[in-house]
Each structure stands twice: as structure tokens, then as C-alpha cells.
Specification:
Blueprint lengths: L5 H7 L7 H20 L12 H14 L6 H19 L23 H14 L30 H10 L10 E2 L4 E2 L7 H7 L29 E2 L5 E5 L5 H11 L11 H5 L16 E10 L2 E13 L10 E8 L10 H14 L5 E7 L3 E9 L3 H9 L9 H14 L6 E8 L10 H11 L5 E7 L6 H9 L3 E6 L2 H10 L1 H5 L1 E12 L4 E7 L19 E4 L3 E10 L30 E8 L7 E7 L13 H17 L9 H10 L8 H16 L4
Parallel strand pairs: 7-8, 7-10, 10-11, 11-12
Antiparallel strand pairs: 1-2, 3-14, 4-13, 5-6, 6-16, 8-9, 13-15, 13-17, 14-16, 17-18
């Protein structure tokens, strides 16, 4: 037979008569609390609250309003428990919180009636000295010297006070003797051990305002800045195109929070490609994009030049946009329980839903401890149904990212739209910790799934737990793009303003290969794209994955080149085996700076096509100011990104000069992106201090 509930025993027990000694003890406890509050100097920086006497008055008023002492018989009973209840209530706002070293013993309470037990404990407490005794149910400490300063008791939890009040009348625990120096309460283990554990649980120490609240566990890929290469030895540069913008948003957040970003969070190409540029695009969809190459002086080095490669994708007209089959794969794990994570994510996807056509379909998959389908494929015309599904999301649990990815691709394949847009849109802080969580394992899963024709977009949220490295890995290997959303304004940019380029691909596996002519170019270096580098032989290998270009996307790549004979050369000539040619005119295409090749596939194709562009003096402008506004602004962004990375080549240019270039080239700025860039320059200059 189950043991009778202790509170039932308390309710059935006869009510003891009030004792004069108990009244006196309660009065003395109240008097000491008043003296302590009166003599205690307020701690600096403590939020003000009610005075102790005001709190006592408030408490008594609440008791009267609840008519707990409506009859004289009950009035006497209240005197005994009120001191204990008042102690917890009055000290709720105490600024002091010293954790106890020991808790109440977990020895089971005797099988005698609680009323008898209370009387026995009272007698024991009065008759035995205060010392540690293993045979007793309470943890005690040696008595403190009378001169020791008094300290307030630890704050009782609201739940504990509620349980105390629920016990009712004389059955509530008596006032607890206090260890003044350490702020401990000695409570007999009666009625409810769980309640006693709550009351005596360790409390957090006062926060140190100079201490970081939590450890930063962001995972950022380490990489080295591209080196200067000798054109004679290594004339070919190959890389995958990149239209990601995550790095710029992350850098912006760092600067606005008051610190310079970690160097490896700065991917210069993502900063450059964050901005819309008015590059010349193709005239029809038969040619998915157009490239424009310009050679111009370098603003940070008089003895080098910049080779600026601008690519513009064909802009799909609204009437031509294909149907979209979208699967929202949303992280609702416990790590997303922050204002800039799941709440922002939900607001961001509400914006995207408003942009979809009535015949587009949306599915929602969430993952925490395991993956689940929240919304089966639903027409965007049922907007309220979709939004209601988004609104019901709440965080909790671990992160089964792998299971979520598999379920999302399954739904995307189930609702696959031929000649349409089929895309999984993953929103997460990247903290995968259930199932396959290794980056290489996830990469293999994504590589397998991309064969289905389903594309991938990855949106990062939050910081302190951001797995940027994993998100870059799966985006780059899933025919995908990556963005970082730190504000609702950024969500509007990515999912509304750039919706066409985000959702509608016009080419995939886009690669660039540049061959430099050693007769015209002594040295070169690619600015950015370090994490997108490819082997030379990968360019013609259609099995090698590369980046995608969406409708209307603009992509920019910049090389710094050192002309032949320039004093800016940093690599010595070889003593042996160097090819020498005294008659350059005898060499084919000797007047070219370089030869640019671009390979791409159609979104549903498997065989690549080739576009080539020779770079000659016809592509050159006489001065930096003669370049277009967009070209000069993109160069300013490139200089800023390199500055933040601490790149040696831009040591001679300071933030003020970069700001001058960007201001002069600001041009049309309908959404204020370039104005914001100028403010970030000022922030970085102030945080750097040296304006070097």
C-alpha cells in the first residue's frame, strides 16, 4: 500500500494551540530582520526595491485580503508559520546570494505524524548545540562569533513559497535558524523533501559586469590569404564562383557590437558580392550571363594594377518565373532559443511566404531531438495555413540535423516540379549534434542528395554557437548559397529584394580559370575566394561541383597584377631554367594580359559549356577615377575586407582613404546598403584606433 501523502496527513492532523514561545521567536526574528535592514548599507549598483518594512506591510495586506485570519481561532495559528513564510517572501529581492556548501540530509522522515515531528524537531533544535552531527536530519555549522556580520538569507524560489503556502496553517515549516556569515537556512526535512531542496538550492553569485556571459563556440573555417604567385611558374588560377553574402552580415554585426571581427570571419569575396552592381548582363536567356573585364590602376599601390572581372546573370522576368517547390528545413533545437535565432527566423520566413506565387508549394520540416514534418506540401495560396504552421514553432531539445536534411529532401523529391525550382531552405545556427554531425559526413550526404536536382540554400542565425564552417561546407557542395541573417532588414534583403537570385538558378557548377601571360604580367594574386580554390585540372572535369548563379546575380572577382618590369615585384627571378624570350612579338597573343575562361552548366544539365574572354590593352582604363562607380565601389569593399584581415598588400592605405573612394563611388543607393558600408568603415576606424 502506497504511503499516505504527507500533506493529507497534515490536513487530517489536529491543529495545535499557539505557543507563547513560538510567538516570541517569530517576533524576535522580525525584529532582527528590521535591525539588519536598517543598518545594512545599500550595495552600489543594486536595483532598488521595496524596503523591508514596506514588504512586510504588503505581505500582511495580501494575507488579510485572502481572509486567512477571518476567525480568532485561526489568527493564533498564523503567528507560528508567518515568520517562516515572511522570511522567504521578504528576502526575495535580496542582492546577496551565497551558495550553501551543504544541503539538508536526504534521510527519510520518521513515520510519525508530522505534527509530532514538528514538536520533536523544535525540542531537538532548542536542546542540542549547533554542530555537525551525522545522526541528525539537518546540516549545521559551528556557531559564528557574535561580532560576525549578519547576512541576508538566500532567496527562496517562487515555487518553494507556493508549496509552503499550500501546506496551510500550523503545518507550514517554522522559521529557519540562519547561518548569518554564509547565508544558509537550516530546515528540518519534513513534509516535502523536494521543497526543501528547492529552498536550499545553490544560488548564482552576483554577476561580474566585465565577465562574458557565455563561451563563444562559433565554428569558423581557418584559411590563409591567397599568396602572390609568379606568372612564369604558376600562370593559371582556378576557382569556383561564389555568390554567398554571409561574411558581410557577420562582419557588420561584429562591428556594430563594438569589436573588430576575427580575421577568418572575413571572406573578402562575400563582402564584395553583398552589394548589387549594375554590370552589363546578357540580352537573352540563351546566354545565362555576361562577363566584363577591366584593368585599372591600384589605389593602394602605384606600381600594380587591378584586373576586375564582373559577371552578370540573366534576369528572369516575372512572367517567366517557373513554379517553386520549397521545403523550409527549420532548426528548433534548444540552441535556437534566443531572440536573434528562432523568433527572427520565423519573422524572416513570413516575409518569404508573402513573396511566393499562388501555385508555388511550401513544406515545413523541423528538427530538434528528431525530425518531423510540420506541414505537408501546401499551395502558397493557403497563406494563413503556412503562416500558422510557422507561428507554432517553439525551441527545445538537441539537434538532429542529419535526420532533418534527409526528411526535407524526401519531401522536395515527393513534390518535385519538372522545369521548376526545387529547393531546400535550411535555417539554423548550425549546431548539429545528433546523427551524422561531422562536416565530411554531412558533405557526403549533401553530395548524394544534389543528384536529385534539388538545390540548397543555407541561412545562418545568431552567434556564440554558430557553425559557419559546416554551413559553408554543405552550401558549397549542395548547389547552394549561404547567407547570414542578423536582423529583419537583412532577412528582407535576402528573401524579398534578392528573392529572384536566391530562388531561381540560371546556371550551376560555374568555374573561372584565368591564365596570365608572363610576358605582360610578372606576378598576380587573387583577392578572396580562398575557400573556393580548385585544382587546375578541375576546370574541365564536369564531375567537380562548383557554385551557382541565380537570376540577376552579379558576381565580382578582382586580381592584383604586377606588370612585367614593375618595381613592385616581390619574387626574385630564377637563376636556372628560366625561359627567356628576346622577341616577344614571336609569341602568340603576346599583347594579352590574360585569358579568362568560364565554365557552367544549365540548372538541369550535366555537360558544361565554355565562355572565353581575352584581356588586352583595350580593356584598360587610364586612371582609377576613369573606372565606373560600381567598379570603384567594389574595389573599396575589397580594400576594406583585406584591411580587416590584416593583408600586407593594403598596409599603405588607411580607412580614411577607403572611405573617400567609397563616398565618391557611392552612386545610386536606393536601399541604403552603401551608406551603411560607410558607417561600418567609420566604426572599424574607431575600433582599430591606429587608422592604419
Amino acid at each position: 500500500m502506497a504511503e499516505e501523502d504527507e500533506f493529507d496527513i497534515l490536513r487530517k492532523s489536529p491543529v495545535p494551540a499557539p505557543r507563547a514561545e513560538a510567538k516570541a521567536r517569530a517576533l524576535e526574528a522580525a525584529r532582527q530582520s528590521f535591525v539588519l535592514e536598517k543598518n545594512q548599507a545599500p550595495a552600489q549598483g543594486t536595483q532598488p526595491g521595496l524596503r523591508l518594512t514596506e514588504r512586510a506591510t504588503k505581505l500582511w495586506s495580501e494575507i488579510m485580503q485572502k481572509k486567512l485570519i477571518a476567525t480568532p481561532a485561526i489568527a493564533g495559528l498564523v503567528a507560528l508559520p508567518i515568520a517562516g513564510y515572511a522570511t522567504f517572501y521578504l528576502l526575495e529581492e535580496s542582492p546577496f546570494a551565497v551558495a550553501p556548501e551543504k544541503r539538508i540530509s536526504e534521510t527519510d522522515a520518521p513515520a510519525e505524524k508530522p505534527t509530532d515531528l514538528l514538536a520533536k524537531k523544535k525540542t531537538d533544535a532548542d536542546s542540542q548545540p549547533r554542530q555537525d552531527t551525522s545522526s541528525r536530519d539537518v546540516t549545521t555549522l559551528p556557531a559564528e562569533p557574535e561580532s560576525a556580520p549578519k547576512a541576508e538569507a538566500p532567496v527562496a524560489t517562487a515555487e518553494a513559497r507556493q508549496e509552503i503556502g499550500a501546506a496551510g496553517g500550523a503545518a507550514a515549516v517554522a522559521p529557519a535558524p540562519m547561518d548569518a556569515a554564509r547565508g544558509r537556512a537550516f530546515l528540518p526535512s519534513v513534509a516535502n523533501k523536494q521543497m526543501a531542496d528547492q529552498v536550499t538550492a545553490p544560488l548564482p553569485a552576483p554577476a561580474d559586469p566585465m565577465q562574458v556571459d557565455e563561451e563563444n563556440r562559433d565554428r569558423i573555417e581557418d584559411f590563409k590569404t591567397n599568396p602572390v604567385k609568379l606568372a612564369l611558374e604558376d600562370p593559371v588560377s582556378t576557382f569556383s564562383i561564389d555568390v554567398d553574402t554571409a561574411s558581410y552580415s557577420f562582419v557588420r554585426r561584429s562591428l556594430k557590437e563594438g569589436f573588430l571581427p576575427q580575421a577568418d570571419t572575413v571572406r573578402v569575396e562575400e563582402m564584395i558580392n553583398y552589394f548589387p552592381y549594375d554590370w552589363k548582363g546578357p540580352d537573352d536567356a540563351a546566354t545565362p550571363f555576361n562577363s566584363t573585364v577591366t584593368v585599372m590602376p591600384t589605389p593602394w599601390n602605384d606600381n600594380t594594377k587591378l584586373m576586375h572581372v564582373a559577371i552578370k546573370g540573366y534576369d528572369v522576368k516575372p512572367a517567366e518565373k517557373p513554379k517553386a517547390n520549397l521545403v523550409f528545413l527549420l532548426d528548433v533545437s534548444g540552441s535556437m532559443d534566443e531572440p536573434d535565432k528562432l523568433p527572427l527566423l520565423k519573422s524572416a520566413f513570413r516575409l518569404l511566404v508573402s513573396k511566393l506565387g499562388p501555385d508555388d508549394t511550401v513544406s515545413i520540416v523541423t528538427y530538434a531531438g528528431n525530425a518531423g514534418t510540420v506541414l505537408e506540401p501546401t499551395k502558397a495560396s493557403e497563406r494563413e495555413k503556412i503562416l500558422n504552421a510557422v507561428d507554432t514553432l517553439s525551441p527545445g531539445g538537441s539537434t538532429a540535423g542529419e535526420a532533418g536534411i534527409r526528411e526535407a529532401y524526401r519531401l522536395a523529391e515527393k513534390s518535385f516540379v519538372k522545369d521548376g525550382v526545387n529547393r531546400v531552405m535550411l535555417a539554423t545556427d548550425g549546431d548539429f549534434n545528433v546523427g551524422q554531425s561531422d562536416d565530411d559526413d554531412l558533405k557526403r550526404i549533401i553530395e548524394e542528395k544534389r543528384k536529385s536536382g534539388v538545390f540548397l540554400s543555407v541561412f545562418g542565425f545568431g552567434r556564440g554557437n554558430l557553425n559557419d564552417q559546416m554551413m559553408q561546407t554543405i552550401a558549397q557542395n549542395g548547389n547552394g548559397t549561404a547567407a547570414y541573417i542578423d536582423t529583419l532588414a537583412e532577412a528582407e534583403k535576402v528573401l524579398v529584394q534578392d528573392a529572384s537570385s536566391t530562388l531561381f538558378p540560371i546556371a550551376k557548377d560555374v568555374k573561372i580559370q584565368v591564365e596570365f601571360n608572363p610576358q605582360k604580367v610578372s606576378e598576380y594574386r587573387l583577392i578572396g575566394y580562398e575557400t573556393r580554390a580548385l585544382n587546375r585540372e578541375d576546370f574541365n572535369n564536369d564531375r567537380v561541383d562548383a557554385g551557382e548563379i541565380g537570376s540577376g546575380h552579379s558576381v565580382t572577382a578582382i586580381y592584383e597584377i604586377t606588370p612585367k618590369g614593375s618595381p613592385a615585384t616581390v619574387i626574385d627571378d630564377l637563376r636556372y631554367g628560366q625561359a627567356k624570350t628576346d622577341n616577344p612579338s614571336g609569341i602568340a597573343n603576346a599583347d594579352e594580359y590574360a585569358f579568362v575562361k568560364i565554365r557552367y552548366k544549365a540548372p538541369d544539365g550535366d555537360v558544361s559549356k565554355l565562355i572565353t574572354t581575352p584581356v588586352t590593352s583595350a580593356n584598360e582604363v587610364g586612371s582609377f577615377d576613369a573606372a565606373s562607380n560600381d567598379q570603384r565601389f567594389s574595389v573599396a569593399v575589397a580594400a576594406f575586407g583585406q584591411k580587416l584581415r590584416g593583408t600586407d598588400q593594403v598596409a599603405a592605405i588607411n580607412y580614411d582613404r577607403i572611405a573617400e573612394i567609397a563616398t565618391a563611388a557611392r552612386g545610386t543607393d536606393p536601399f541604403g546598403y552603401r551608406a551603411e558600408f560607410l558607417s561600418l568603415l567609420r566604426l572599424a576606424s574607431a575600433l582599430d584606433g591606429s587608422n592604419r
